[in-house]
Design a protein that fits this description.
With 428 residues, the protein is of the alpha/beta class. It is built from 14 helices and 11 strands. It is flat, with a radius of gyration of 29 Å.
Length: 428
């Protein structure tokens, strides 16, 4: 296997730059350019010299002996001064060694997975942690990176293997008297795993929303103050405001951090009849996005019919509180009246939903769990028909187990790996 290297910190001038080296020749290379090599996990300052003995820089050198490293291989980190010239010179120096090459995006993490340091869900959790922008995203990604989902899958898998083994014993001794009826234990195992998987599936939507962002749509008729309210919530002029009806003709999105939760506010086109062709397209988009949003804020008059069907937790307010005699249940983006209360209410609603988030944070996770649940359901259905159908039940259990193994990357995921790791930066 090649020894790989890459800059692990961001490109460009910086105070410090870290270059990571991993593979069978990592220690030899480091010893050659930064002798004497410090003991594993002991940081030491060394002069980094080229083939002619000329000093390129003085760096902090750290060594990690495999398998006790991130990749599971011998690994060296060079903490250099973040000069573009220094980094370029060191990378050129490393490329001159036989059997070494620049790492591909995500290759360090891929080697960590291949060497059993991470499962595939942890890899995805690491990617999410790197991309995290809010506190909720950070916490969720860290839970996945810590291996909690993989640990759950291992427990479910062990129970299903136990259940399948019990059925196989019954099948193998079908012509003999089996002293124990295995169906009660098998049923108990399957019911327990099925309940856990269904609960995890139920939490996937919220978990994915924490990762990608909740959508909150502001909906109402033209000139209801939707764009003004969006600007007030965003704290900037994100949308054009005008007294002319139909100014907003497309969905305007503003990304925000509300109480640590990622939220995308949607300013939609005013919903009305008799619009021109372009505005009608915007209205259709507004209805679609409004229906798909996680939460809707309606700006409507008292007794006015809602333009889109409301569901639980949706917020209904009267617009333009600054022009009313009574500000009860009203809000104004012009004066800010009611805006803090609206923000607090949105945070409370979405915060309560986030408590039900599961560990499965990607669509791929949900699909794998769904396949496993379908296999379990089929096995339990067949199991009710008695021992004559145990061979079919056992096969359905194997389908369920394979879906869980695919979830953590043990089987049938080779076609996914290039896509997943290509999203990582060099040096990770």
């Amino acid at each position: 296997m090649d020894t790989i290297f890459a800059q692990a910190t961001a490109q460009g001038r910086a105070g410090v730059c870290v270059i990571r080296i991993s593979g069978p020749q990592a220690f030899f290379i480091a010893e050659t350019i930064a002798q004497p090599l410090p003991a594993p996990r002991v940081a030491a300052v060394r002069a980094i010299s080229d083939a002619d003995g000329q000093v390129i820089d003085r760096a902090l050198v750290l060594t990690f002996e495999g398998p006790n490293s991130f990749t599971g291989e011998d690994t060296v980190e060079l903490h250099l001064h973040g000069s573009i010239a220094v980094v370029r010179a060191v990378l050129a120096l490393l490329s001159g060694f036989d059997g070494t090459r620049l790492a591909e995006p995500g290759e360090f993490t891929r080697r960590a997975m291949e060497n059993g340091k991470l499962d595939l869900t942890q890899v995805e959790g690491l990617g999410d942690l790197i991309e995290a922008e809010t506190e909720a995203q950070r916490k969720q990604a860290l839970r996945v990176l810590s291996g909690h989902l993989g640990q759950k899958v291992d427990i479910w898998r062990e129970k299903l293997i136990r259940a399948a083994a019990l059925l196989e014993v019954t099948i193998d001794f079908a012509d003999e008297d089996v002293p124990v009826d295995v169906s009660p234990e098998v049923t108990e195992l399957l019911n327990a795993v099925n309940a856990d998987i269904l609960a995890e599936i139920a939490g996937t939507h919220t978990a994915e929303r924490i990762r990608t962002g909740f959508e909150v749509a502001i909906i109402g008729r033209p000139n209801a103050g939707k764009s003004t309210l969006l600007n007030a919530l965003a704290g900037r002029d994100a949308a054009i405001t005008s007294a002319v009806a139909g100014t907003t003709r497309d969905v305007i999105e503003v990304r925000m951090d509300l109480g640590g939760l990622p939220v995308t506010l949607l300013d939609t086109a005013g919903l009305r009849e008799g619009a021109d062709e372009v505005e009608a397209i915007g209205i259709d988009r507004a209805k679609t996005r409004g229906e798909q949003a996680d939460l809707r804020v309606f700006l409507v008059e008292e007794g006015e019919e809602l333009p889109v069907a409301a569901v639980a937790d949706d917020i209904v307010l009267r617009p333009k509180a600054d022009l009313r005699d009574s500000a009860d249940k009203a809000i104004s983006g012009v004066t800010g009246q009611g805006v803090p209360q609206l923000i607090e209410r949105i945070q409370t609603i979405l915060g309560a939903r986030s408590l039900n988030a599961g560990l499965a944070t990607h669509e791929r996770h949900r699909v794998a769990l769904q396949k496993s649940a379908e296999g379990l359901a089929a096995a339990m259905l067949v199991l009710d028909h008695g021992p004559d159908q145990y061979d079919i039940a056992s096969e359905e259990l194997r389908h369920s187990i394979r879906a869980l193994e695919a979830l953590v990357g043990r089987i049938d995921v080779e076609n996914l790996l290039d896509v997943i790791f290509s999203s990582f930066c060099l040096g990770k």
